[in-house]
Amino acid sequence: MDASDFATFQEKVRGTNISEHTLLATDYLNHFNEVVMVLEMVADFPDALEDVKAWEPLSYIEHFQNSHFSDKDLAIAAYDHVPANFRRAFETTVDQINQLIAATVRRLERISGEGDAEKLRHEAGEASKSIQKLMDVASAIIHGSEVTMDQSEIDSLLRDE
Predict the structure, then answer these.
(1) Interatomic CA distance for residues 58 and 63, integer angstroms
(2) pTM listed for this prediction
(3) By the 8 A CB rule, do 13 and 74 touch?
(4) What residues pair up with 18 in beta bridges, in sequence order?
(5) Mind listing the pLDDT tens digit for each residue in 44-72?
(6) Is the pLDDT score of 1 beyond 60?
């Protein structure tokens, strides 16, 4: 990445909801907020599991292509200029979130088939919290942190019992 391109995009994003430090936008996390909210509903409305199953991962670019975010075109253009350290950490974390959601769907489907409403309620709530932890990591990266979760933490979140 050319430093002058990065500086140009830093200027372009100034005053928007896109980070000047990373050129990433927190609006992308709304994509995951949707599934977290529905997971929280599964505890009381087991039929909401169908909505969780219907959720599809979207890349950063895909999300903004389908978004009503006021600076969506700028978010898309800036993505190619995100510094490699932030982009790598961000994409790794997003991949981990997507894996966790897929593992959660498999686990909840299995529990739902067992007919144990209390276990379904518990697991849906725990999954929601785990996904939120990873979203917090993604948010920190968007705001300039390079801290990610270590593999043992990820493995514990991705358990597929």
Answers:
(1) 6
(2) 0.88
(3) yes
(4) 25
(5) 888 899 999 999 999 999 999 999 999 99
(6) no
CA distance 120 to 112: 6
What is the tens place of the pLDDT at every residue in 80-89? 999 999 999 9
Asked if residues 106 and 114 have their Cβ atoms less than 8 Å apart, the reply is no
Kindly give the interhelix angle for 3-13 and 72-79, rounded to the nearest 10 degrees.
160
- Side chain identity, residue 84: A
Dump pLDDT digits (tens) for 124-148. Answer: 999 999 999 999 999 999 999 876 5
- Closest by alpha carbon to 72, among 134, 132, 30? 30
DSSP 16: S
Whole-angstrom Cα distance, residue 119 to residue 70?
Answer: 41
Contact status, residue 108 vs residue 52, Cβ threshold 8 Å: yes
3-state secondary structure of 41: helix
Helices assigned H by DSSP within 43-83: 49-54, 60-65, 72-79
Q: Are 149 and 138 in contact (CB under 8 A)?
A: no
Q: Which residue has the tokens 């959720």?
A: 55
Angle at 133 between CA 20 and CA 146, to 5 degrees: 40
